[in-house]
Specification:
The chain is of the alpha/beta class. 32% of the residues lie in helices and 22% in strands.
Length: 485
């Protein structure tokens, strides 16, 4: 299914096509009379008197060939509210055969900044589908034409929305791919193709990683016939030598749990254990497409956690890139091993202004926060507040969880510097974050987002129709846009 947007010149005021019109929260349509023929106006006005007007949208079939969608614009709408309106509009028109709608932008009421841009953005985000492997393709087309002299989004605004959509969709595509297709070798190739968007891409293969001493990351992938990689994506949007903003993602392309084997039920979902890396990649693509006025780097560790004669064993001890040794008590606590090397490498090589990492790290965060909030852990109050506020604005919400030195005793190993899991019990997400914090060596402002409950949706959300959500792309774009550009 395809959404096609067209901006038209002024058209006739009395229109025979499907119309989208806007009114105030009381559904007063007196100002819309010029766009309707008299019988349509009377019909809609009479029906509205009988309706419960708590809804935001109504669709009226005025005859067999024409529909009129009425959208209520309430007072004090946030941008996210307007995007949700667009998504709601998409839901009610997404059925049947090809269809065409005309939005009359001059009918928009109120003083909301860039209402139409956010409304269309919501439509596009909601329309995403991953149907690549369906043999019967959905060729349906919804054409949305926009006319009117007012409220048209600026060219720059359109570029920003399109970049954000493409970045989000790229992240969703990556998460949606099956494990036999998007293994680490293929993933690295796809990232290399982002050079065409203006990103500088460096791929560190196993030979280079061994030379660097990244044995925590390599240990996770050693049981797979596929390679293991660390990939850096750099965007230089300003010519000065300012410190880059750094984003690090866990890219476990498939996670069996290794010898600490996961239950068979729902293991097929472990294709999305690379969602943290997909968010980083989608975010960096977005920065490049919209020519963001920042310097930024994305770092992703790409591995496959498999069972084989060469796989890592419980009880193994590995030396991380930082020099710290790690005792592997549970091979299913693998994402933190990938991130440990990636975090230290990012801090040492790029000396960033801050580091934000994202990972589907623990099931415990789902027990705690469900699928409404990502867990936020940080060593910096300012960065935490900025991320929280950005999440509220785009409705990709986070909730700050505690870090404290007293949790360290749960991760101290008798045989190495640190163990990779807390076997005492409790605080599963916090102790995982506490583990990661040990690999931030120079007190760089750092935040960890545990997105295990947010990366994939069985039932769909406000701006996605189920499946991969691309959570974090819009959140971190807003963080950067409001605080660092």
């Amino acid at each position: 299914m395809t959404i096609k947007l067209n901006y038209l010149k002024k058209t006739s005021s009395k229109l025979s096509t499907n119309l989208v019109l806007f009114c105030n929260e009381k559904f007063s349509i007196s100002t819309l009379k010029k766009y309707l023929i008299n019988t349509e106006f009377t019909y809609i006005n009479d029906l509205l008197k009988k309706f419960d007007l708590k809804k935001n949208l109504f669709i009226f079939e005025v005859n067999s060939k024409k529909k009129i969608v009425l959208v209520s614009i309430k007072n004090n709408l946030k941008n996210s509210d307007v995007e949700n309106l667009g998504a709601e509009f998409y839901k009610i028109v997404n059925h049947g055969k090809n269809s065409e709608y005309l939005i009359i932008s001059d009918s928009i009421v109120g003083e909301h900044d860039n209402f139409l841009g956010h409304f269309l953005h919501g439509i596009k985000l909601k329309s995403y589908e991953f149907k690549k492997y369906k043999t019967k393709k959905n060729t349906r087309l919804i054409s949305i034409n926009i006319t009117g002299n007012k409220n048209k989004p600026s060219v720059q605004s359109q570029i920003k929305f399109k970049a954000l959509e493409e970045g989000t969709f790229f992240a969703r595509d990556l998460v949606s791919e099956p494990g036999n297709i998007l293994h680490p070798d293929e993933y690295a190739k796809r990232l290399n193709s982002l050079k065409k968007d203006g990103l500088k891409v460096n791929i560190y293969d196993e030979k280079k990683l061994k030379k660097l001493g990244m044995h925590a990351l390599l240990g996770v992938g050693q049981g797979s016939v596929r390679g293991s990689y660390l990939v850096t994506l750099e965007w230089n949007g300003v010519k000065n030598n300012s410190k880059p903003l750094a984003f690090v993602g866990k890219g476990v392309c498939f996670d069996t749990g290794g010898y600490s084997l996961k239950p068979a039920k729902f293991m097929e979902d472990m294709t999305y254990d690379m969602a943290g890396s997909a968010t980083v990649v989608g975010l960096m693509k977005n920065f490049a497409l919209r020519k963001a006025k920042i310097n930024a780097v994305g770092v992703v560790g790409l591995v496959e956690n498999m069972v084989s004669g060469n796989a890592q064993r419980p009880g193994d001890i590995v030396k991380s890139y930082s020099g710290k040794t790690i005792e592997i008590l549970n091979t299913d606590a693998e994402g933190r091993l990938v991130l440990a090397d990636a975090l230290t490498f990012t801090e040492k090589k790029f000396k960033p202004k801050f580091i934000v990492d994202l990972a589907t790290l623990t099931g415990a965060i789902i027990v705690c926060l469900g699928s409404e909030y990502a867990g936020l852990f940080s060593n910096d109050d300012k960065l935490s507040k900025q991320i929280f506020n950005a999440g509220e604005k785009v409705e990709e919400k986070v909730w700050r969880m505690p870090l404290h030195k007293n949790y360290d005793k749960l991760m101290n190993s008798k045989n190495a510097d640190v163990q990779n899991i807390n076997y005492v019990g409790g605080a599963g997400s916090t102790t995982a974050a506490q583990f990661l914090q040990r690999f931030i060596l120079n007190n760089t402002p750092w935040a960890h987002l545990d997105i295990a409950g947010m990366a994939f949706s069985k039932y769909g959300g406000a701006l996605n129709s189920g499946g991969a959500t691309g959570f974090g792309v819009r959140l971190l774009n807003k963080l950067v846009e409001e605080n660092y550009e």
